[in-house]
Amino acid sequence: GYPVGPADEEYVLVNNKCQCVTVTSKFVPSKENPDEEVLERNIRILVPLKARENISDPLSPLRTTFVYRLSELCKNCDPVEIELGGAIHQAQQGNSCGEPQTCYTYDRNVCYSSPVPILHHGEVKHVTAALTPASCFAE
To answer: Cellular component per GO (predicted)?
Structure first.
């Protein structure tokens, strides 16, 4: 994890912008024994209102079911290099990394687009429109 702030004892373990979940942890005095510290974990979930089943399709039905699995949120799929038997190998700390993640909202770092019908001179044309313009176009 990384510190929430420079003078903060709280650490961010998960910051999943796709599913709007943040998991933090910090050591706090124990209720049973104030001389002892215990690890406290906080899970913050923002449920986006009016989220669509298919976020790239503004006409898809509203999403009514949200599923959060801590094991999937905490998996680390970034490849790391490790040395085994004198050779360097690429390894991942997470399993099922090939499966696509279900997004409940737009990840602002990803470009999302959707075809939009436009009536031009009596003819309907489908034009690709950016749903997250800041991520789709360079400054």
So the answer is: pentameric IgM immunoglobulin complex
